[in-house]
Amino acid sequence: MRLELQGIVKRFGDLVANDGVDLVVEPGEIHGLLGENGAGKTTLMNICYGLCRSDGGAIRIDGRTVHLASPKDALRARIGMVHQHFMLVPVFTVAENVVLGQEPVHRLFGLLDRGRARREIREQSERYGLAVDPDQVVETLPVGVQQRVEIIKALVREAELLILDEPTAVLTPQETLELFQIMRALRASGRSIVFITHKLGEVLEVSDRITVMRLGRVVGRTTPAETSAEQLAAMMVGRAVAFQVQKGSARPGGAVLEVADLRVVDDRGGVAVHGLSLTVHAGEILGVAGVQGNGQTELARCLYGLVPAAAGRVRVDGADLSKASSRRMARAGVGYIPEDRQREGLVLSFSVAENLVLDLFDRRPFAAGLRYDPRAVRANAVRRIQEFDIRSASPAAPAATLSGGNQQKVVLAREFSRPLRLLIASQPTRGLDVGSTETVHRRLVEERDRGTAILLVSTELDEVVALADRIAVMYRGRIVATVLPSTPRETFGLLMAGVAPAMAPGAAP
Amino acid sequence: MTEVDANAASAGTPVPPAPEPVDSPPAAGPGPRRRLQAVAVPGTLVVTVLAVFSALVVGAVIIVATSTATLTAWGHVLHDPGRAVHTSWTAVETAYAALFTGALGDPAAYVHAFQQRTAGAFVAAFTPLSETLVDTAPLLLSGLAVALAFRAGMFNIGAQGQIIAGALAGAAIGLVLPGLPGTLHLALGLVGSFAGGAAAGWVPGVLKARTGAHEVITTIMLNYVVLNLLVYLLGLPFFLGGGLQVNAISRPVPAAVQLPHLAGPGLRVNGGIVVALLAAGAVWWLMRRTTLGFRFRLIGASPAAARAAGVDIPKMVTLAFVLAGGLAGLAGGVQVLGVANQLVPNFGEELGFTAIIVALLGRANPTGVVLAALLFGAFQAGGLQMQAQTSIPIELVEVIEAVIVFFIAAPQLVRQLYRIRAQGGGIRLLSQGWGG
Predict the structure, then answer these.
(1) CA of B370, closest CA in chain A: separation in Å?
(2) What is the pLDDT of residue B77?
(3) Which residue of A99, A139, A153, B299 shows the fewest CB atoms closer than 10 Å?
(4) Distance from A395 to chain B by nearest Cα, in Å?
(5) Which residues pair with A265 in a beta bridge?
(6) Cα–Cα distance, A422 to A314 (Å, whole number)
(7) pLDDT > 90? residue A337
(8) From CA A344, how far away is CA A300, in angstroms rounded?
(9) How far is CA A193 from each of CA A24, A60, A108, A144, B304, rounded to the nearest angstrom?
(10) How far from A54 is each of A48, A49, A356, A462, CA to CA, in Å?
(11) Does B322 score more than 90 pLDDT?
């Protein structure tokens, strides 16, 4: 099947998510669709899958124009999609999930024909090496297998073009390799695949052709043979990769955060952080680098008291805060920029002014005893909005009406409005545009120069290298090595893959 | 060679970052941004008014469809279509006129009263208004009880039980401690009813806080426990008193502990409505002007953000339920010390459930709840009058109330009926409570 998108336009209010996108997916190819968060990749594919209507442009399948008003239309046109968040019923078996919506009915009794469902799944499973047991209950399966159930769902519906939306975001490296095998087997059977990602290495490894998107437009078309990770990155972000952060050298003081043998268990019972130790000094940025899913999220949340430590010790300025709540952490001068700012960092239905005092509302000047003073909160908001250049209609506007960059500025403005000893910043620029990213970076460096200890967790190696004074590389819940930012990229690559070099060049104390 | 779209790659184009809706709903509806604005702008007043209006229309249809006079007229519609329409109109007009005058009073009676200037004429004219306020007081207090929990992200289905617990405590204090000065005794009775309701609210609150037990289940179940406790206690000599009692009805509380009448002995309107309005003001102040209210709103709007901000969520959940229970308990107290003056096995009837509707109609904010309680108080008082004057039973009022809920719960329906494009927040409110 040959899918052709021509001049697709999609607007959300005054935002242009897709601005005249052309894309051709040839039969039997794996087409990598690369772009940063917010580049418009998912929107484009949602249009292909009938989840949203385009405001302009045409979709052709094998030369014929089609109108895809719903996923049903898309399935009829043999387009299937595996979403980032799976659409499975956890308590149903694989077979039940697969047939859901088009249950095969037994000819004689009008009952559900489980046998046929099972047979079909076994068939598809064997053919493409999916290794899925139709009788297993979905919630008991690892994420990687659940994803394959989604793929089978599409295959059983005879999809000839599969859209995989950031499929590797939830997978372990091993599962990722297995997924690539499956994708190749599907290609061999003549199916086409659109592989959405923002990971350069993966797109180079598995794609036949690559389309790069930025700010709603196609900014490049290439093949893995013709390009390199550097070139792709430059296309993706629209400039040379290296983040230019203006900063002088750090003047580290005494140790502020001391973590010893920390162990964190995640909500599924797995050990996310395995006896980790690190130290952050006043006036330095310690970067925590690593591939997503190696325990960084849990580390940051635990250090701020949002997840209890299973074992180990956390000290801030010498005080033992191993079992401290987030409230005590905040009182001890710890600031926190959460990874999921819309969930933990903000209350979207609250006003900007209220969001600026989420953890300060019960202290002077915003409160005296039980009394809460909205006028002081508003006055504070007016100041912060100006100081941090937050683009908001008014202090009373709900945080939900702000753009992602401005929402993050609200979080920063709030955390920086009390004197900090330590700042834990988790993925502080994820999903932000270039301008906002620069603002965040500048503020972090300024805060460092004010003598605050900063723990920066980021899966963007470029960001960590540009900002951090020392870099701890995390792999499977442990720190493999702590190195200087000047360390060669190849060494970082090895460290992030868990290879602990006996003498990593540039190893820092 | 790598082909690069020079136009787009030249950067510098100030295109804002496009939103990438990760899991946008399948409906080809508004984009994520517009959806968020819809949450932000609660243009719900129009929808609320139209919901009430629509319910009255439905009520009119029911009046026409259930009265024998109109049905007979419609049976001869081919002979005399004018009569069918006329009869229907008269039936609806009579019923709603009775409902209106029963709730707010008859304009003619007011004129008469101000001309005659006799006590009897004033009482006659103001009785409907007085009755409306008498019915409003407990509705307002228990509506606030549901609304407060709503704002903290929880569904309080237990107002009924909390009302009874409050009434029990209030009546018990009224019956013991003889010899106390009247005002003090009354104040104690009200405080006691608040405490009784608070105790009943504490149970689901602490269960949720400590074990995560869903408050909808626990409050529903607790309603039965408290109801049966009432029935049991009413069988005890303490409540029954020494007299020859056939029915399980308690002794009346002494007159000194009863809420004073506001407009003379002829009108039933009493201090209850004052207590209720003060409570509404207090709830507004609590939610908007205290740190405690900020915490309640915070856990209601986003438990995750509340946790990150260091709010002690279990404590707040318990406290919100204690205060909500207290308000409902006060409703029971006002009812037993102001209106009923004694306890009966079916005390409060459906009050605690109507309270949920009142809170919903009032969008869980104090001002809205005051207006909704007034409306429902008027319905209650007017419905009785309508039943007395026409052959239409007061159950019609319940139907109208139920239909209002339908329209409030499905604002989309109202918008489609009246082709309104405004977005409302009703859905958000409903779905949010379950998340807690």
Answers:
(1) 23
(2) 80
(3) A139
(4) 13
(5) A271
(6) 13
(7) yes
(8) 13
(9) 12, 16, 38, 18, 37
(10) 9, 11, 37, 35
(11) yes
Closest residue of B to A367, CA-based?
B291
Tokens for A37, please give them: 């968060």
Tokens matching residue A338: 């959460």
Given a contact cutoff of 8 angstroms between Cβ atoms, the answer to whether B133 and B377 are in contact is: yes
Distance, in Å, from the CA atom of A221 to the CA atom of A242, rounded to the nearest integer, reads: 22
Least Cα distance to B167 among B325, B337, B350, B321 occurs for B337
Least confident stretch, A133-137, A242-246, B197-201: A242-246
Mean pLDDT over the full length of chain A: 87
Amino acid (one-letter) located at B182: G
Question: Is some CB atom of chain A closer than 8 A to the CB atom of B116?
Answer: no
Among residues A291, A34, A33, A30, which one has the least CA distance to residue A181?
A30
Cβ neighbours for A241, distance < 8 A, ≥ 6 positions apart: A230, A233, A234, A462
Choose, out of B294, B298, B312, B363, the residue to mutate when testing the contact with A (most A CBs < 10 Å): B294
Give the residues across from A482 on adjacent strands.
Answer: A472
Say if residue B393 is preceded by a cis peptide, omega within 30 of 0: no
List the beta bridge partners of residue A6.
Answer: A58
Please name the residue of chain B whose CA is at the shortest distance from the CA of residue A45: B20
- Does residue B6 sit at the A interface (CB-CB below 8 Å)? no
- Verify whether the Cβ–Cβ distance A71 to B26 is below 8 Å: yes
Q: Which residue has the tokens 């009032």?
A: B362
**How far from chain centre, in Å, is Cα A426?**
11
DSSP A341: I
Q: Is A242 exposed, middle or buried (0-12, 13-18, 19+ CB in 10 A)?
A: exposed
pLDDT for res B15: 35
Count of CB atoms situated within 10 Å of the CB of A71: 18
| Identity of the residue numbered B38 | A
Cβ–Cβ under 8 Å, residues A263 and A275: yes
- For position B430, what pLDDT does the model report? 38
Task: Check: CB of residue A352 under 8 Å from CB of residue A396.
Answer: yes
A241 contact B CB<8A: no
Q: Which stretches of A79-147 are assigned E, i.e. beta strand? A: 79-82
Give the model confidence (pLDDT) of B376-420 as tens digits: 999 999 999 899 988 888 899 989 988 988 888 887 788 888 876
Q: Dig out the tokens for A38 from the structure.
A: 């917010």
Interface check for A53 against chain B (CB to CB < 8 A): the answer is: yes
Whether residue A107 has pLDDT greater than 80? no
Q: Is B189 exposed, middle or buried (0-12, 13-18, 19+ CB in 10 A)?
A: buried
How big is chain A, counted in residues? 509
Phi, psi of A104 (to 5 degrees): -70, 135
CB nearest B37 (choices: A343, A361, A401): A401
Cα gap A505→A500, rounded to integer Å? 12
Inspect the interface and report whether the beta carbons of B15 and A37 lie closer than 8 Å. no
pLDDT, tens digit, for every residue of A386-431? Answer: 998 888 888 999 998 887 788 999 999 999 988 999 999 999 987 7
> Taking CB atoms and an 8 Å cutoff, what residues of chain B touch A38?
17-20
Mark yes or no for CB contact B16/A433 under 8 Å: yes
Q: How far is A366 from chain B (nearest CA, A)?
A: 9
If residue A453 lies in a helix (H) or strand (E), which one and from where to where?
strand A453-457
State mean pLDDT over A453-460: 91
H or E stretch at A148: helix A143-156
Whether B4 sits inside 8 A of A235 (CB atoms) is yes
What size, in residues, is chain B?
436
What mean pLDDT is predicted for residues B257-271?
A: 89
Which residues in chain B (265-284) have CB-CB distances under 8 A to chain A? none
Cis amide linkage into residue B17, ω under 30° from 0: no
Phi, psi for residue A407 in degrees, rounded to 5:
-65, -40
Q: List the beta strands (DSSP E) in B312-364.
A: none
